[in-house]
Amino acid sequence: MTVADAEIDHRRLMLIVNPSAGGGRAARVTDDVAAALARWGADVRIERTRDIDHAGELATVATKDGRVAAALGGDGLAGRVAGVVAADGGLFAVLPGGRGNDYLRGLGCSPDPVTAANALATAVARRVDLAEAGGTPFLGIASVGFDSDVQVIANRTRLIRGSQVYTYAALRVVAGWRPARFTVTIDDEPPREHVGWTVAGANAAYYGGGMRFAPDAEPDDGLLQVVVVERTGKLTFLAQFPRVFSGRHVASPHVSVRVARRIRVDADRPFQIYADGDPVADLPADIIVRPGALRLLAPPAQRPGSAPARPAAR
């Protein structure tokens, strides 16, 4: 059973906090964020997660109680809460509390948690897409190959704070990388082989703490951007790497970009697909998009060309 749009009052929220996100950043800002929400919200409930499954349980409780499920943590927490909220027919909001906060970056929201919380006071509800990899919902970019190895190191690194951890991890992985052979099927086309670095299905533009990996990806166009980084020498890869932060890497002859509603990916050695910073599927796996599956509460006029927004239910 889903919750009707009119049953969600955006002034009633459950703030779902991952206290360990961002090296403890989410925990440190929780009280300030809650105070900001309380300045305009009629009823703000704060819940701290024990683990990712507990976050999903809290999202269900929030929706059934007619509350906005607002995730304060990293992209992984946001993806899990968003998937549950979409299934339950609720209303989702996301606030920056992790290292990357890439989904919010793509929406044009402030990286400051308190500023973002204040901005929700004038928010509107609109329909956005939700993607899945191997049946697991995600918000941003699902990628496999070189990116998988980078995420393993990034998730283990504790001494480097903030989004710089992804750059550090990428430079670590380059040294020992050997090209992978991917088999990629786009929609109903015949499978094609690609030898190289990475295959990604993007529902949003950013990942890795500000890398604009899929610059044309939009969260509400019903499509995935399929980005494939083909084989290059390591020096060429390193020379091109800084361009990923502006999105100019897609002009390289070693990068191809397609659009799809479904892709299937396999490889010549074991990899896990990572999305929103977490492992979500083993190969082979399908990456799909579910158009308009999620109701997102966000400030209006976030970016040119976004879907028309309507006021949130009061």
Tell me the CATH topology of the largest domain: Tumour Suppressor Smad4
Low-confidence stretches: 301-314
Beta strands, count:
16
Number of helices: 8
As a percent range, the share of strand residues is 25-35%
Helix content: 25-40%
Briefly note the structural class of the backbone. Answer: alpha+beta
Looking at the chains present, what oligomeric state does this protein adopt? single chain
General shape: globular
Largest sheet: 12 strands, antiparallel
The CATH architecture of the largest domain would be Sandwich
Question: How big is the Rg?
Answer: 19 Å
Q: Strand-and-helix sequence, N→C? A: EHEHEHEHHEEEHHEEEHEEEEEE
**CATH top level label of the largest domain:** Mainly Beta
How does this structure look, described?
It is a single chain. The chain is an alpha+beta fold and 314 residues long. The chain folds into two domains: 5-129 and 292-311, Probable inorganic polyphosphate/atp-NAD kinase, domain 1 (Rossmann fold); 137-290, Tumour Suppressor Smad4 (Sandwich), CATH 2.60.200. 28% of the residues lie in helices and 33% in strands. The protein has eight helices and 16 strands. It has helices spanning 21-38, 52-64, 75-88, 102-107, 113-119, 146-156, 164-176, 234-240, and strands at 12-17, 43-48, 68-73, 92-96, 124-133, 136-138, 141-145, 180-186, 192-202, 224-230, 255-260, 262-267, 272-275, 278-282, 285-298, 310-311. Strands 5, 6, 7, 8, 9, 10, 11, 12, 13, 14, 15 and 16 form a twelve-stranded antiparallel β-sheet that branches. Strands 2-1-3-4 form a four-stranded parallel β-sheet, with helices on both faces. Strand 13 (272-275) and strand 14 (278-282) form a beta hairpin. Helix 1 packs parallel to helix 5 (113-119), helix 2 runs parallel beside helix 3 and helix 6 packs across helix 7 (164-176). The two termini are 21 Å apart. Residues 301-314 have low confidence and may be disordered.
